[in-house]
């Protein structure tokens, strides 16, 4: 067991008891703010309180030391601003008239953290212990090294490509869904509450009591404009919070990552519901991503993507889980939304495109649709449609009493992106069902098999089973040498490797730059399997200076 006298209370590293830490520069004579727990306080006969790190309306975060496991931890104290006060003996007491608000928040704080402690959600920082002491409550979490997503973005050009973001964000969706299954709505998902760990994984932090995430007069609320949904603000109409609230926050975060900007404040969008995406990004992003963002960022909850499971399926495959998808269904839902008068999120590519559509409509009115609109004194025989090939059935009724049954030619969908197929109105006569997903030579997300062959003549609403490609299973191993650990992780994820199969090891070599990958396995250019285990070695040599 390490003596706490040797630990720096600013970084919890063993510096031999120096007054000014040579690692982080913290002065051991420094004190925590007046309202915070004093440095070196022992909690639960196990945890040593260090430097106070951050504070908000709910409480205070500290760096700490777990004497049982000799490990650095993060300590969260429930200390609601304007509701609690610190006494000289370190205890916390409630302000007069605020007893109900304090106790209501205390119970919720304990409930949330105990639920997370008992869960196994991979994208949450594990909770080590939850306990009550000194008139309040504490939650102790593992110390995960990393930076906020906002810091990560600023260091990497401000945005990420969808191929990079996809591998990072999809595991986070499953964790948020898991929180919802536990009855926890985060209500504060943003680039400041998502951590990019040194292992290349995203982790969600900042889950808080309800009052902190709403505009209210009791607790000092913490709402991040652009990330927060309309139901978190005081509005003329009562809007309830639900899983769709986190759908909004998650997609506002993803929007920021992909586009580099934020949606307008939700209350402003209640008055003027419009949002644009620069043409550069609209052209680069897959259709299903643009469509998913549009649905998830609807300002009114009743119009929004309802839950994380639906969002995940829309982002990846453009499908609604558990049902077959038809283009006609999608058109019907769009029409219903228009009838309800709800605002639409407008994805504008360029002004030129809008003008072109307008001119095209005018041309069609006075040419193709002239007779339907203005009438035709000399009607001509009907001409066949050019959008979807139609063939008369051999059972055509020639009596004229009933319209003949029509058959439709099935196109070749091989190599087409599934999301594009179901969004194309020319395919509204078929019902598409995903039969499975498999590795293939086709790009990931495209159709690599269809149950009804190209050129078949089928009835309307015929079911077509398709298999979606997971991409190639075997490919050449890319080089990640001389990259940082995070850069290497992103490169490997982009190539198609699984998070769980990437192992980071340490190796010391003075001939190479610090903190860079100096060795990898398999070797560059070697043929590998997408499910293969990967080892990358990070140089622990620090050079002539400290790196931290």
What topology emerges from the helices and strands here?
Elements: E1 42-43, E2 47-55, E3 59-66, E4 71-78, E5 84-86, E6 92-94, H1 99-117, E7 127-133, E8 136-142, E9 146-148, H2 149-155, H3 162-181, E10 194-197, E11 202-204, H4 243-259, H5 266-271, H6 279-284, H7 287-296, H8 308-316, E12 325-326, H9 327-339, H10 351-366, H11 370-374, E13 390-392, E14 406-409, H12 418-423, E15 430-438, E16 447-450, E17 457-458, E18 462-469, E19 474-476, H13 485-495, E20 502-507, E21 517-521, E22 527-529, E23 534-539
Parallel strand pairs: 15-18, 20-23
Antiparallel strand pairs: 1-2, 2-3, 3-4, 4-8, 5-6, 7-8, 9-10, 10-11, 12-15, 13-14, 14-17, 16-18, 19-22, 21-23
Helix pairs in contact: 3-4, 3-8, 3-13, 7-8
Summarize the structure.
This protein has 548 residues and is an alpha+beta fold.
What report would you give on this structure?
The chain is of the alpha+beta class and about 550 residues long. It folds into four domains: about 5-140, 2-Layer Sandwich (Phosphorylase Kinase, domain 1); about 145-350, Transferase(Phosphotransferase) domain 1 (Transferase(Phosphotransferase), domain 1); about 405-470, 2-Layer Sandwich (Trypsin Inhibitor V, Chain A), CATH 3.30.10.20; about 475-540, 2-Layer Sandwich (Trypsin Inhibitor V, Chain A). The protein is about 25% helix and about 20% strand. It has 13 helices and 23 strands. It has helices at about 100-115, 150-155, 160-180, 245-260, 265-270, 280-285, 285-295, 310-315, 325-340, 350-365, 370-375, 420-425, 485-495; strands at about 40-45, 45-55, 60-65, 70-80, 85, 90-95, 125-135, 135-140, 145-150, 195, 200-205, 325, 390, 405-410, 430-440, 445-450, 455-460, 460-470, 475, 500-505, 515-520, 525-530, 535-540. A six-stranded antiparallel beta sheet has the order 1-2-3-4-8-7, covered by helices on one side. A hairpin with a 4-residue loop joins strand 10 and strand 11 (about 200-205). Residues about 320-405 have low confidence and may be disordered.
């Amino acid at each position: 067991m390490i003596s706490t006298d040797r630990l720096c209370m600013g970084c919890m590293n063993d510096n031999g008891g120096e007054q000014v830490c040579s690692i982080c520069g913290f002065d051991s004579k420094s004190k925590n703010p007046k309202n915070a727990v004093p440095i070196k306080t022992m909690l639960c006969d196990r945890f040593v309180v260090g430097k106070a790190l951050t504070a908000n309306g709910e409480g205070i975060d500290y760096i700490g030391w777990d004497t049982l496991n000799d490990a650095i931890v993060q300590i969260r104290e429930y200390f609601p601003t304007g509701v609690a006060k610190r006494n000289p003996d370190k205890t916390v007491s409630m302000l007069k008239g605020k007893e109900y608000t304090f106790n209501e928040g205390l119970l919720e704080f304990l409930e949330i953290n105990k639920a997370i402690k008992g869960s196994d959600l991979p994208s949450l920082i594990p909770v080590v212990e939850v306990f009550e002491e000194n008139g309040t409550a504490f939650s102790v979490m593992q110390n995960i090294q990393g930076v906020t997503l906002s810091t990560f973005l600023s260091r990497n050009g401000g945005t990420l490509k969808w191929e990079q973001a996809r591998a990072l964000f999809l595991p986070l969706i499953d964790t948020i869904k898991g929180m919802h299954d536990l009855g926890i709505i985060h209500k504060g998902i943003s680039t400041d509450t998502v951590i990019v760990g040194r292992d290349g994984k995203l982790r969600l932090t900042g889950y808080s009591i309800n009052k902190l995430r709403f505009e209210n007069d009791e607790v000092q609320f913490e709402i991040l404009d652009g990330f927060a949904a309309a139901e978190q603000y005081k509005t003329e109409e009562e809007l309830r919070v639900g899983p769709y609230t986190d759908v909004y926050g998650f997609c506002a975060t993803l929007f920021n990552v992909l586009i580099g900007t934020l949606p307008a404040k939700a209350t402003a969008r209640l008055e003027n519901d419009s949002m644009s995406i620069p043409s550069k990004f609209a052209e680069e992003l897959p259709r299903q991503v643009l469509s998913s963002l549009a649905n998830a960022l609807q300002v009114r909850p009743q119009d929004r993507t309802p839950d994380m499971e639906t969002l995940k399926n829309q982002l990846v495959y453009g499908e609604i889980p558990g049902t077959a998808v038809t283009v006609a269904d999608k058109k019907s839902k769009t029409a219903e939304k228009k009838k309800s008068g709800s605002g639409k999120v407008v994805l504008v590519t360029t002004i030129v495109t809008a003008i072109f559509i307008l001119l095209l409509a005018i041309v069609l009115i006075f040419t193709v649709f002239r007779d339907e609109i203005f009438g035709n004194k000399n009607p001509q025989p009907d001409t066949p449609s050019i959008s979807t090939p139609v063939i008369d059935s051999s059972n055509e009724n020639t009596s004229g009493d009933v319209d003949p049954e029509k058959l439709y030619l099935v196109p070749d969908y091989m190599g087409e992106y599934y999301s594009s197929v179901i969004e194309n109105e020319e395919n509204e006569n078929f019902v598409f069902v995903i039969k499975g997903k498999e590795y293939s030579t086709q790009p990931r997300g495209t159709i690599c098999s269809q149950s009804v062959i190209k050129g078949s003549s089928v009835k309307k609403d015929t079911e077509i089973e398709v298999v979606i490609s997971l991409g190639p299973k075997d490919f050449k191993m890319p080089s990640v040498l001389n990259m940082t650990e995070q850069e290497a992780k992103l490169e490997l994820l982009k190539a198609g490797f699984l998070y769980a199969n990437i192992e980071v090891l340490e190796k010391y070599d003075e001939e190479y730059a610090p903190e860079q990958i100096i060795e990898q396995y398999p070797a560059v250019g070697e043929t590998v399997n997408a499910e293969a285990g990967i080892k990358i070695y990070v140089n622990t040599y620090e050079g002539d200076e400290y790196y931290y």
